[in-house]
C-alpha cells in the first residue's frame, strides 16, 4: 500500500479525529476508495487513525458498516498495514481500545488470524495486549479467541505453540497471572517443558514483581478486613476462557452491542431519570472499592498458584543441576525485589539453595549477605531458622575487602529500602536495629574486626550514616517545633505558658539516642499534646455552653465546630506519626524469628 496524497486527505483526517462521520460520508459515497486509502505519510488508513484516537467509536462503526456489504473490502480494510506493519487491531491493543477491538473482530471473517497477524517486528496484537497491559479484559478477550488455535492438541500449525513461552512471560510482566496460569496448565506437558528457559524466565518475572503477592501490599485497616472476609474459590481462581473454535460472528456482534451500549450510557446519558437509576449508581460506587480488593486478592491467589505450579514442574524433573541453575538467579532477583513469597517457595522446594552465592564482576557473597544489604527482614528470618547455615556464613570474612557480615550491616541501606520508612529519625532507628541485630549474632572477635581500610564495623556505621544522623536531628527538631507552635496557638487562651515537647529541642542527638531515647521523648510529647488539646477543647466547649445558656444557644454548636477544625486537622496529620513511632519502637514485627516459624 503506497501513500498517494490527495486534497481530501486532510479533510478525511480532520473528520476522523473529530468523530464526525456525517461531514465526510458524502465524499466517501462519491469516492469509496478513500475509505481504505492511506491518508498520512505513515500509510495510516482512516480506520487506523480512528481506532488510535480511542474516541472516534462512531466513525469506526459507520466506516465498517459502509464496507460490510463487500467481505473482501472489509477484510482488506481490517488487515491493512501501516509503514511499520501494524494493523488497526495493533493500534487498539496498544492503547487498550476495547470497544473498537471488538468491533474489528466482529466484522472480520477471520478474527483469529487478525489477532495473530505480525507486524514488521514480528509482534502480534495478542502480544501487544500482554506487553502494554492497558486492560486485562483486552488480553483475556484476545486470548479466549486464539486459545484453541494455539492448543498443541488442536493447532494445525505446530509452530504456533511456540508462542506460549513469550506470551507467558508477557502476561506476567503485564500483571495478568490468571492468563499465565491458564497457559501453563495447557502447555505444562508440551513446549514449555521442552524449553525450560521460558519457565525460568517466567519465574524471574514473578520474582521481580512483588506487587503480585500478598506481603507487598500495605492495606488500610478497613481494606485488610474486607480482604480477609472476601472469598476466592480455588476452582475459579484460574482464568476460565475455554472458547469454541466455531464461535460465530453473531456472538461477537452481541458482545460489541453490549459494550457500545455501555459506552453510550457512560458518555451521553447523564440524567438521573428515576430513583432506580440513582440507587444503581450508588451501589456501583460503593461496590467499586470492594471489587478492587477482590481483584487484588484474586491476583495474589493466581500468582501464588502460578509460582507453586512452576516450582512443581522443576521439582518433577528430579535433576540437581537443572534445579540449581533454574533457581539460583531467581532467588537473588527475589531478594533485590523484596519478593519474599518467591524466595520462600524456591527454598522450600529446593532447600540447598540457601547456600547459593551471588556472583558478579565486583561482588561474591552469600544470599544472607545480600538480604542484610537489602534490609530484608523476612529473608533474614527465613535464614535464621537454619542453624548450620548461620554458623558457617555469619562468621566468614571476605578475602578481598576483609569485611565480615557486620561491615555489611554497617553500610547505609539502599535508597529504595530506606525510603520505605517515614522520616530520617525513624530511618536512623531502623538502621541501628539492623546493626545491633547482626552484632548480637557474630563472634565477639568480629565485632572489632577491621576491613582493608582499617575500619571496624562501628566506625564504618558512623561514617556511612553521618548525613542521615544530621537529617534525623533536623527532622526531630522540626517535628517538635511544629507541634509546639500549633499547641501554642491553640492553647494560649487556656494556658499562659508556652507548650514545648519535653527534651526534644535540647537533646544531644547521639547515634544510640535514636534507638529508644529520642523516639520515646517524641512519643511522650505528642501523646501529652493530644491529651492537652482534647482537654482544652472540652473545657472551651463546656464554658461556651454555660455562657450562652440563656442567650444565643444556636451559635454554640457552629463555634465549637469551627474551632475544632484546626485541632482535627492537626490530629489527622500527626496521629499516624505517633502510631508509627510506637510500632517502630515497641512493636515486635520487625524481626519475627523469635516468635513465629517462617517455614512450616
What would the average pLDDT be, to the nearest integer? 77
Q: For the terminal residues, how far apart are their CA atoms? A: 64 Å
User: Helical element count?
Assistant: 30
Summing up helix and strand content along with how strands pair, one would put the structural category as mainly alpha
The major β-sheet equals: 2 strands, antiparallel
Helix content: 55-70%
Strand residue content: under 5%
- Total count of strands: 2
Shape, principal axes of CA atoms: flat
Uncertain parts = 155-162, 239-253, 259-273, 495-500
What is the spatial order of strands in the main beta sheet? Answer: 1-2
Roughly how many Å is the radius of gyration? Answer: 32 Å
Keywords:
600 residues; mainly alpha; 30 helices; 63% helix
Describe the fold and architecture.
This protein has 600 residues and is mainly alpha-helical. The chain is 63% helix and 1% strand. It is built from 30 helices and two strands. It has a two-stranded antiparallel ribbon with strand order 1-2. Strand 1 and strand 2 form a beta hairpin. Helix 9 runs parallel beside helix 11. The longest helix has 43 residues.
Strands, helices and their partners?
Layout: H1 8-17, H2 22-30, H3 46-53, H4 57-67, H5 71-79, H6 88-95, H7 98-107, H8 111-115, H9 125-132, H10 136-150, H11 164-173, H12 177-186, H13 191-194, H14 196-207, H15 221-229, H16 249-268, H17 275-317, H18 320-336, H19 340-349, E1 357-359, E2 364-366, H20 367-373, H21 377-384, H22 387-393, H23 405-410, H24 415-418, H25 424-439, H26 444-447, H27 457-464, H28 466-491, H29 517-547, H30 556-586
Antiparallel strand pairs: 1-2
Helix pairs in contact: 1-3, 3-6, 4-7, 6-7, 6-9, 7-16, 9-10, 9-11, 11-12, 11-14, 12-17, 14-18, 17-19, 18-19, 25-28, 28-29, 29-30
Amino acid at each position: 500500500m503506497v501513500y498517494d496524497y490527495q486534497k481530501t486527505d486532510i479533510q478525511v483526517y480532520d473528520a476522523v479525529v473529530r468523530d464526525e462521520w456525517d461531514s465526510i460520508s458524502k465524499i466517501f459515497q462519491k469516492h469509496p476508495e478513500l475509505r481504505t486509502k492511506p491518508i498520512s505519510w505513515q500509510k495510516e488508513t482512516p480506520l487506523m487513525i480512528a481506532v488510535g484516537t480511542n474516541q472516534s467509536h462512531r466513525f469506526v462503526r459507520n466506516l465498517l458498516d459502509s464496507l460490510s456489504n463487500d467481505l473482501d473490502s472489509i477484510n482488506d480494510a481490517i488487515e491493512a498495514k501501516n509503514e511499520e506493519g501494524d494493523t488497526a487491531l495493533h493500534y487498539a491493543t496498544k492503547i487498550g481500545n476495547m470497544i473498537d477491538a471488538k468491533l474489528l473482530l466482529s466484522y472480520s471473517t477471520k478474527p483469529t488470524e487478525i489477532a495473530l497477524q505480525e507486524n514488521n517486528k514480528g509482534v502480534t496484537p495478542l502480544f501487544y495486549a500482554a506487553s502494554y497491559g492497558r486492560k486485562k479484559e483486552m488480553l483475556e478477550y484476545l486470548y479466549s479467541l486464539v486459545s484453541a488455535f494455539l492448543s498443541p492438541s488442536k493447532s494445525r500449525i505446530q509452530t504456533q505453540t511456540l508462542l506460549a513461552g513469550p506470551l507467558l512471560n508477557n502476561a506476567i510482566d503485564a500483571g495478568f497471572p490468571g492468563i499465565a496460569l491458564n497457559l501453563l496448565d495447557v502447555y505444562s506437558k508440551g513446549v514449555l517443558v521442552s524449553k525450560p528457559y521460558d519457565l525460568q524466565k517466567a519465574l524471574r518475572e514473578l520474582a521481580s514483581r512483588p506487587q503480585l503477592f500478598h506481603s507487598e501490599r500495605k492495606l488500610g485497616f478497613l481494606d485488610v478486613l474486607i480482604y480477609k472476609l472476601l472469598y476466592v474459590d480455588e476452582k475459579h481462581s484460574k482464568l476460565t476462557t475455554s472458547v469454541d473454535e466455531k464461535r460465530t460472528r453473531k456472538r461477537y456482534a452481541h458482545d460489541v452491542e453490549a459494550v457500545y451500549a455501555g459506552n453510550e450510557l457512560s458518555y451521553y446519558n447523564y440524567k438521573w431519570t428515576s430513583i432506580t437509576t440513582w440507587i444503581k449508581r450508588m451501589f456501583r460506587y460503593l461496590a467499586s472499592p470492594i471489587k478492587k480488593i477482590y481483584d487484588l486478592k484474586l491476583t495474589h491467589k493466581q500468582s501464588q498458584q502460578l509460582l507453586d505450579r512452576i516450582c512443581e514442574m522443576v521439582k518433577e524433573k528430579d535433576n540437581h543441576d537443572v534445579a540449581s541453575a533454574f533457581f539460583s538467579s531467581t532467588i537473588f532477583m527475589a531478594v533485590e525485589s523484596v519478593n519474599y513469597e518467591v524466595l520462600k517457595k524456591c527454598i522450600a522446594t529446593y532447600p540447598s539453595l540457601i547456600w547459593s552465592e551471588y556472583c558478579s564482576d565486583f561482588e561474591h557473597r552469600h544470599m544472607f549477605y545480600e538480604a542484610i544489604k537489602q534490609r530484608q527482614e523476612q529473608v533474614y528470618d527465613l535464614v535464621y531458622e537454619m542453624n548450620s547455615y548461620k554458623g558457617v556464613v555469619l562468621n566468614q570474612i571476605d578475602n578481598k575487602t576483609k569485611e565480615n557480615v557486620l561491615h555489611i550491616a554497617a553500610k547505609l541501606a539502599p535508597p529504595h529500602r530506606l525510603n520505605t520508612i517515614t522520616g530520617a529519625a525513624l530511618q536512623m532507628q531502623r538502621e541501628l536495629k539492623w546493626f545491633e541485630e547482626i552484632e548480637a549474632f557474630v563472634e565477639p572477635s568480629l565485632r572489632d574486626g577491621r576491613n582493608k581500610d582499617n575500619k571496624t564495623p562501628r566506625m564504618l556505621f558512623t561514617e556511612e550514616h553521618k548525613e542521615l544522623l544530621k537529617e534525623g536531628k533536623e527532622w526531630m527538631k522540626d517535628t517538635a517545633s511544629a507541634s509546639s507552635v500549633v499547641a501554642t496557638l491553640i492553647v494560649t487562651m487556656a494556658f499562659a505558658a508556652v507548650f514545648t515537647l519535653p527534651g526534644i529541642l535540647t537533646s544531644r542527638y547521639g547515634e544510640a539516642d535514636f534507638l529508644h531515647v529520642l523516639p520515646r521523648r517524641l512519643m511522650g510529647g505528642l501523646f501529652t499534646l493530644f491529651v492537652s488539646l482534647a482537654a482544652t477543647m472540652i473545657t472551651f466547649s463546656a464554658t461556651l455552653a454555660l455562657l450562652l445558656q440563656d442567650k444565643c444557644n444556636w451559635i454554640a454548636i457552629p463555634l465549637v465546630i469551627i474551632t475544632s477544625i484546626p485541632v482535627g486537622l492537626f490530629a489527622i496529620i500527626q496521629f499516624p506519626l505517633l502510631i508509627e513511632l510506637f510500632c517502630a519502637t515497641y512493636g515486635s514485627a520487625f524481626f519475627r524469628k523469635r516468635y513465629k516459624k517462617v517455614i512450616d
